[in-house]
Specification:
The chain has 247 residues and is an all-alpha fold. The protein has 11 helices and no strands. It is globular, with a radius of gyration of 23 Å.
């Protein structure tokens, strides 16, 4: 379990460098409305995102509980793991600048429909943390390939609690990029930023390939084990029949 939580955090941390562009830009725009950085509001925003991620993870895990009774659940698991790996690879290609973000336009349209502009105006004028938390909740619902990949892994979670914890650690992994990485990137040269993003992209590709491999290998192991049990059971029956011939 500890290993999987570390993997969830790393997945969020490495992939969140992409978030600096959209979500980090949103946070920067909110901060520009104030003379100084208002940390309570920023943390409320992060908490809103993580609450949504955890809730979605538990909902997907609940769906997985219903699917486990299906006879072809192993094939579903394979498909989900391959899908998650492909989503991570596609996300990494975008992070490295090798492919356009397929969700960018959809996310922009949803931001307009969800009323981000009105909430940002309320945040810039208000003193409470509720508008910041509300923006975090809405931001957590925006289309994102990295989030979809993380949610795919929760379909095989052993419990709703495990799924929620996995997505919580995933969300915590995105916090450094949202809070501190933008300031760090501004101090780096364009070439340095390019090397950093491409290095993170290569690591995410490796994680995606590993996820696909583990998914297919696990199902093959399960199918082989099931076949072996059937063979053993058949052998026992034959042995029983030979030992007690009919009268």
């Amino acid at each position: 379990m500890e290993y999987s939580l570390v993997a969830a955090w790393l997945m969020g941390f490495l992939g969140s460098l992409h978030c600096v562009g959209m979500c980090g830009g949103l946070v920067g725009a909110l901060n520009m409305q104030r003379a100084t950085t208002w940390w309570p509001g920023l943390w409320a925003y992060q908490c809103g995102r993580i609450v949504v991620y955890s809730s979605l993870g538990m909902l997907v895990a609940l769906l997985g509980v219903g699917l486990k009774s299906l006879p072809f659940f192993a094939q579903i698991q394979t498909g989900v793991m391959v899908f998650a790996g492909l989503m991570m690879i596609a996300f990494a290609l975008n992070l490295g600048g090798w492919m356009a973000d397929p969700f960018a336009q959809l996310a922009s349209k949803l931001m307009v429909r969800l009323g981000f502009g009105r909430l940002m105006a309320a945040v810039s004028k208000g003193k409470g943390v509720r508008p910041w938390f509300a923006i975090g909740l809405m931001n957590g619902l925006l289309p994102c390939g990295l989030v979809y990949a993380a949610l795919s892994a929760t379909l095989m979670a052993p419990s709703l609690w495990h799924a929620g914890l996995w997505m919580t650690f995933f969300g915590l992994g995105t916090v450094p990029a949202m809070m501190f990485v933008p300031a760090l990137l501004r101090k780096m040269t364009g070439q340095q930023r390019g090397f950093l993003l491409k290095g993170a992209a290569i690591l995410i590709v490796a994680m995606g390939l590993l996820m696909m491999f583990r998914g297919t290998a696990w199902v093959q192991l399960m199918m082989h084990g099931s076949h072996g049990m059937e063979m053993d059971h058949s052998g026992d029956m034959n042995h029983s029949g030979m030992g007690h011939p009919p009268l």
